[in-house]
Amino acid sequence: MKLLIKWLLSATALLAVAHLYSGVEVKSFTSALIAAFVIGLLNTVVRPLLVVLTLPFTILTLGLFLFVINALMFWSAAGVLDGFYVQGFTAALIGSLIYTLLGLVIESALERLFFK
Question: Running DSSP on this structure, what letter comes out for residue 64?
Fold first, then answer.
């Protein structure tokens, strides 16, 4: 149940990102659902590999390179989907930052809801 609610709220967060920032476009809620799923899948499968491969650079930049990795995951999802568009790397960086902040709020709310 928690996973389903988190997925729906993540899709809503993507719609909010598109509303707040013009560099990200989402055509419909269905597109947002698919994009949230793909972003989650990329973050589960590809992101850990990138983090390990770029660990020296991440250490050198004091962890700031993780923002670049997040932006790449966001941009990659837009690259493989119809209905979810990101207008370049800068837009992916800003969009992923907003999406991450909204995701933190969602996670915090779900923790309080399911684990009082």
Answer: T
